[in-house]
Amino acid sequence: MAPALILHHYDFSNFAEKARLALGFKGLDWGAVTIPPVAPKPDLTALTGGYRRTPVLQAGADIWCDTRLIVRELERRHPAPPLLPPALAAQAEAIAWWAENRLMRPITLYASGLNGDVLPPGLQADRSAMRGLPAPDAATMLRAARRNAPLARAQIPLVEAMLADGRDWILGAQPTVADLAVYHPLWFLTARTQRLAFELAPFPRIGAWMERVRAIGHGRPQPMPAAEAIAIARAATPAALPPTTPHPEDPPLGSIVRVRADDNGQELTQGILVHLAADEIALRREDERAGEVVVHFPRLGYDLRPARA
Ligand SMILES: N[C@@H](CCC(=O)N[C@@H](CS)C(=O)NCC(=O)O)C(=O)O
């Protein structure tokens, strides 16, 4: 029988590495659909309606975009062991926000600028297009790497300092989502080649902690063709939604809205607004191939507006 949870991902995506570790931490079996690392991604967008970033989680006809929401959904379905223990959840989310919004970008630009030869052709042109920029040449990439190396080096020692008292995990005695969120940008530095391993070498606590995070593993992925995931969505009915808690400023439930990321990869997902919570938006849409699906986004980092007539 196919596993209940399906992750749409590719190997060198650092956000996918966070999701794989979360699935591993929960000890889960999961369907693993390999998606292309660059647009177009027609099988993925049949499910999401437009969102093209990586990874995406699927359970039947429900689709979760963004690892912040993916982790929360995993936590809801499999509360133990927790990645967001109540006493640490707020701090963990705040550290994750820093890691994914300030630490990650300079590391990505530094590593991609120097490791172009071990990354797929067309990747940089696609990533620049995602930000509305022209395709960079090798010299532009190298300049970006040189500008960003010092920004990465200004932040990596903060991680060593977080571990300075000998604790095993970023927030103390137990792992939290902060460990996964700080780990995946650092993992990206050496995921494809050891060329930049020297950047982490001076930090013994980071090294030992990264080994602990790596040891969490990925659970039990079972490779699945994209067509099977789409057929699973088509055969399923979206799950019942919890009570909605909109704000007065929100578009009305039942209206047609569109959601897109507010930073990069701004392809629109349009559908009928069916659910709102403090940090969640869900749209129902009908797809030719996937049938009726509900696509879930966090609020933070996404832009929700009424669809244009
Ligand atoms: N905030 C998003 C960010 C996801 C993201 O930016 N992922 C990168 C890959 S690591 C991406 O989508 N790159 C373009 C692509 O894969 O098409 C999350 O937490 O999932």
What number of domains? 2
Summed up, the helix count is: 9
Bound small molecules, by name, code or SMILES, are: glutathione
Helix content: 40-55%
**Rg from Cα:** 19 Å
Encode the helix/strand succession as letters. Answer: EHEHEEHHHHHHEHEEEEE
Structural class: alpha/beta
Task: Describe the largest sheet.
Answer: 10 strands, mixed
* Percentage of residues in DSSP E strands: 15-25%
**Which segments are poorly predicted (pLDDT under 50) over 5 or more consecutive residues?**
none
What form results from the Cα inertia axes? Answer: globular
Can you identify the CATH class of the largest domain?
Alpha Beta
Strand ordering within the main sheet: 5-2-1-3-4-9-8-7-6-10
Distance between the termini: 43 Å
Determine the CATH topology of the largest domain.
Answer: Glutaredoxin
CATH architecture of the largest domain: 3-Layer(aba) Sandwich
If you average the pLDDT, what whole number results? 97
| Number of DSSP strand runs | 10
Question: Would you summarize the structure shown here?
Answer:
By secondary structure, the chain is an alpha/beta fold. Helix content is 41%, strand content 18%. Strands 5-2-1-3-4-9-8-7-6-10 form a ten-stranded mixed sheet, sandwiched between helices.
Can you describe this structure?
The termini are far apart. The protein has two domains: 6-81 and 222-306, Glutaredoxin, CATH 3.40.30.110; 89-216, Glutathione S-transferase Yfyf (Class Pi), Chain A, domain 2. Helix content is 41%, strand content 18%. The chain is of the alpha/beta class. The chain has a ten-stranded mixed sheet with strand order 5-2-1-3-4-9-8-7-6-10, sandwiched between helices. The mean pLDDT is 97. The chain has helices at 14-25, 42-48, 67-77, 89-114, 123-130, 138-162, 177-190, 204-216, 226-235, and strands spanning 6-9, 29-34, 56-59, 62-65, 220-223, 256-261, 269-277, 280-287, 291-297, 302-306. It contains nine helices and ten strands. The structure holds glutathione (GSH).
